[in-house]
Design goal:
The chain is α+β, with helices and mostly antiparallel strands. The chain has 4 helices and 5 strands; from the N terminus they run ββββααβαα. It has a single domain, classed as 2-Layer Sandwich (Ribosomal Protein S5, domain 2). Strands 1-2-5-3-4 form a 5-stranded mixed sheet.
């Protein structure tokens, strides 16, 4: 269990490549500390959820590169990547807890494309009878 495990997390159009190794609990995202990269505490909380569910907070170092999407999608992509990496590290110990918390499921919802002749994907221009 002394090796680095890499995993991929996706959410909306955000893609996170995650490398998890045993360490002191530092999380680095695109060369920055996680608290500097995600300014909101709620987003930092989202990224730490897999560690809290498995009871491994402060035991693993995470290096991640994220591109695409917005900050919320990036945080959730990072969460999925960390959860997948933890599951690969020790399937027996962590997989059941991560799965029951729903962190191993890829949220497949994507933005629907805009249609021609409409202001949005489903929104229509105002109808005028006369």
């Amino acid at each position: 269990m002394e090796k680095t495990v890499n995993a991929l997390g996706r959410r909306k159009s955000a893609v996170a490549r995650v490398y998890v190794a045993p360490g002191k609990g530092t999380i680095t995202v695109n060369g920055k500390d996680v608290k500097a990269y995600f300014a909101q505490d709620s987003l930092v909380y989202i990224t730490n959820q897999p560690f809290e569910v498995t009871g491994t907070a402060g035991q693993f170092d995470v290096k991640a590169t994220i591109n695409g999407g917005g900050i919320k999608g990036q945080a959730e992509a990072l969460r999925l990547g960390i959860a997948r990496a933890l599951s690969d590290m020790d399937r027996d110990a962590y997989r059941a807890a991560l799965k029951s918390a729903g962190f191993l499921t890829r949220d497949s919802r994507e933005v629907e494309r805009k249609k021609p002749g409409q202001p949005g994907a489903r929104r229509r221009f105002q109808f005028s009878k006369r």
